[in-house]
Amino acid sequence: MNAKPPTADPMETLLRILELSDAGGAQTDEDIFVGLGNANAPQPRLFGGQVLAQSLVAASRTVGSEHLMHSMHGYFLRPGDAASPITFGVERLRDGRSFSARRAHAYQGGAPILSMIASFQRPDQGIEHQDTMPEGIPAPETLPTSAQLLGAIDHPVAQAWAYERPFDIRHVGANIYFDVKGEKVAHQAVWLKTLGPMPTDQNLHRAALAYASDYTLLEPSLRRHGISWAMPGISVASLDHAMWWHRPLQVDDWLLYVAESPSASEARGLNLGRFFNRDGVLVATVAQEGMMRVPEGTLAD
Known about the structure:
Helix content is 19%, strand content 34%. By secondary structure, the chain is an alpha+beta fold. The protein has a single domain (10-122, 143-293), classed as Porin (Beta Barrel).
């Protein structure tokens, strides 16, 4: 088939999603914001990374411009509806000299779909060390794009992943879209960046990275057991998400996303990820546990 152009520019969609309204100044004991869903999504369930990013943007609107998000811990409570707007309530838990803490809830239909606590910090000086970026990783320009891998597949999800994601995502080695080739290992790496330039706001870059972190983080658990995204009857959902931002980053420049799964049990898989820029600087770390159910009798060794 011929490639289908996206129904909307993916970068314009991303920036519009991250541009929350203040609900006309509405406020209870929380600061209230409203964000868009994503009516162009190929599936009715709202993408978890979008809700994470929007919640972080909402929380960042309540701190001073000099405060940068440095950590968040959240739980996905209910599936969201991609076609409906989301209301965000932010509680100002504490404002200290260096750190500010916020609790954010994302609501649809009057019920919370995400509960999150985030912490913000003024830039400071202190001790420094970091993990080392893996060696021998091919440059992103040498790897195939999602559009090249999925663009000819006549399926709405494949088309959306090929043309409607606002991020360029390139797997180092084999991907697991349709099958798992090679050794079944519990680790992988991908390069990613936004398709276009982002505004200069560092908190917006960090929120956008949280958005992208949810795309492939559960894949090491799946890869270890030979499970692809196309397996019939598979059911996968994010349960929680934790993220730490260590240093300034540019999500519109290439970042290497190295992920591994140290454990899977009781229909849950734990996955850890690290983000390095092209200079080998560790800019963020992420952790997530996901629910993973496969049809009985299909589990691989």
